[in-house]
Design goal:
By secondary structure, the protein is of the alpha/beta class. The chain contains eleven helices and ten strands. Helix 3 packs across helix 4, helix 5 packs across helix 9 and helix 8 packs across helix 9. It starts with a helix and ends with a strand.
């Protein structure tokens, strides 16, 4: 995770300047726990964590140094686990005595896929079966399926969720099973980033510029890109031409991914800084996206991000009119016609159990690979990996140039 090093480094640098120059102010570092599960930020908002915060500077790894404002192509979502209960029986000896919870899951998925034809173009919906029974000769008494319902705004997200509930209830009726629970595992509002804060950050991005990548950095990057069959453009050497942003009309938005920073962005002026710690053109959520994290690419990108982050914090501390302007935009533009309503229900709680079994299983093995900063200058040295290690013409992997 290269995001927290950006924030921690920036906070330590600003703290030192604040103490030296006697600048009043409070810096709050908070963890983006379970970001990929969209599992915490709505709960942070509900708990009032940001009620006295002036501005939020969020970070996310990318392959250039940039930020933006307004609303773009992303979706909000609700993440829901549907659990069914039936009755077990011998699948061959007395199947008529059973009621298959797995049948309910399968019929829900079939029903949703038929319903999908009649949904709006920006929607995204996808699912995985978390529990499908133990073995074929036992009618599954329990089964569950995990859905993501994504849409452009709160009303449409809630409409999709209600459709999902109806399909689940219908599947239970068809199979003589019970819809035992509808559990929210996460949620996210579509984000709206603050124009004033983004403009302030952009000016600092231009001052910081991109890292000066070494030949070794570019060699590793191009070798990996060729390995994956994507354009071997190398690392970015030029900033975006300008600050991107705006309010895209709803009818032109085609949907996309989600991030629960959106919930925070509708409660306090917020931006996201994208910093260049990853390699361009990779597929995302793929093993290849993790390669850069152990290399100087990630370290240099995080350092550049920390500089832009720290400079923006100082601007906000030293120029209080920027904070006022950010709130003017928030109140008079962003929230003029939209009011935040939580997607999570009052009874919902963070799904802290999620993935606990996987981590419990693999953590002992993971500990062998924890970085020992007292013994090694960097993680690659600890692993005994030469930088850059790339595929050679004979098919082997090792250091050196690739023609």
């Amino acid at each position: 995770n290269s995001g927290q090093p950006v924030n921690v480094t920036a906070a330590l640098a600003v703290k030192k300047i604040m103490e030296r120059e006697r600048l009043p102010g409070t810096l709050m570092l908070w963890p983006g726990v379970a970001e990929e599960q969209l599992g915490t930020k709505a709960y942070y908002v509900r708990a009032g964590l940001f009620k006295d915060v002036d501005v939020v500077l969020f970070t996310h790894v990318g392959n250039n140094l940039s930020t933006s404002w307004g609303e773009g192509g992303g979706n909000g979502l609700v993440s829901v686990l549907y659990s069914f209960e039936g009755r077990s029986a011998h699948s061959a000896g007395a199947p008529w005595r059973g009621r298959s919870a797995l049948d309910a899951v399968e019929l829900m998925d079939i029903g949703w896929n038929f319903r999908r034809e009649h949904l709006r173009l920006p929607q995204r919906s996808h699912y995985v079966i978390k529990d499908g029974g133990d073995q074929p000769n036992v009618v599954p008494p329990t089964a569950s399926v995990w859905y993501y319902f994504r849409e452009l705004d709160y009303p449409n997200i809630m409409t999709m969720w209600a459709m999902g509930d109806s399909v689940a209830q219908g599947a239970a009726m068809m199979t003589g099973t019970q819809l035992a629970s509808v559990q929210v595992l996460g949620s996210a509002w579509p984000a709206h980033m603050n124009k004033v804060v983004a403009q302030t950050m952009w000016e600092n991005i231009r001052k910081v510029g991109l890292p000066r990548w070494t030949e070794a950095d570019q060699r590793l990057t191009r070798a990996l890109q060729r390995e994956l069959g994507v354009p071997d453009s190398g690392l970015a050497i030029k900033l975006p031409d300008s600050l991107s942003g705006g309010i895209m009309p709803m009818e032109r938005r085609m949907g996309g991914g989600s991030d629960d920073i959106g919930d925070i962005s509708w409660n306090v002026p917020t931006i996201t800084l994208s910093f260049p710690s990853n390699i361009p053109n990779l597929p995302g959520h793929n093993w290849s996206n993790a390669i850069a994290m152990a290399t100087p690419i990630a370290h240099q990108g995080a350092t550049a991000g920390a500089k832009a982050q720290a400079m923006t914090v100082l601007d906000l501390l030293l120029r209080p009119e920027l904070v006022q302007q950010a709130w003017d935009y928030f109140r008079n533009e962003q929230t003029r016609n939209t009011r935040y309503q939580p997607i999570i229900r009052p009874e919902d709680r963070p799904a802290t159990w999620l993935n606990a079994d996987i981590l419990g299983k693999h953590r002992p093995e993971m500990r062998k690979y924890y970085y020992d900063a007292a013994k090694y200058q960097n993680y690659l040295e600890q692993l005994g990996v030469q930088y850059p290690t790339v595929r050679q013409p004979d098919g082997s992997c090792g250091g050196g140039a690739v023609p």
